[in-house]
Amino acid sequence: MSDFQHISVADTAKLLADNKVVIADIRDEGSFAAGHIDGAYHLTNGSLNSFMQQFEFDQPVVVVCYHGNSSQGAAQYLVQQGFEQVYSMDGGFESWRTQLPFVSGDSA
């Protein structure tokens, strides 16, 4: 079993545009509600089982946190659970929001 890989904001955006990846945002509820990458899955301890049932282990996953630090541990955890292609996005959501559009506010 391999470790997770690092991925840039630009490479994440390209994979997302090609519908080749799921974004797993691990930030807290308030931060996720205030703004997140369009289509991101809010991955929490409470939603982990649902996430693992919803997505196949060969589905590429990019884990996003605030600045790209916490996502590394979460990405490694997903690898240990059996996900085959897992990335930690360098710079996190804070880097994404300065470069690319995102969903702001709670649209639910």
Automatic annotation (TrEMBL):
<dbReference type="InterPro" id="IPR036873">
    <property type="entry name" value="Rhodanese-like_dom_sf"/>
</dbReference>
<dbReference type="InterPro" id="IPR001763">
    <property type="entry name" value="Rhodanese-like_dom"/>
</dbReference>
<protein>
    <recommendedName>
        <fullName>Thiosulfate sulfurtransferase GlpE</fullName>
        <ecNumber>2.8.1.1</ecNumber>
    </recommendedName>
</protein>
<feature type="active site" description="Cysteine persulfide intermediate">
    <location>
        <position position="65"/>
    </location>
</feature>
<feature type="domain" description="Rhodanese">
    <location>
        <begin position="17"/>
        <end position="104"/>
    </location>
</feature>
<keyword id="KW-0808">Transferase</keyword>
<comment type="similarity">
    <text>Belongs to the GlpE family.</text>
</comment>
<comment type="function">
    <text>Transferase that catalyzes the transfer of sulfur from thiosulfate to thiophilic acceptors such as cyanide or dithiols. May function in a CysM-independent thiosulfate assimilation pathway by catalyzing the conversion of thiosulfate to sulfite, which can then be used for L-cysteine biosynthesis.</text>
</comment>
<dbReference type="InterPro" id="IPR023695">
    <property type="entry name" value="Thiosulf_sulfurTrfase"/>
</dbReference>
<dbReference type="Pfam" id="PF00581">
    <property type="entry name" value="Rhodanese"/>
</dbReference>
<keyword id="KW-0963">Cytoplasm</keyword>
<dbReference type="InterPro" id="IPR050229">
    <property type="entry name" value="GlpE_sulfurtransferase"/>
</dbReference>
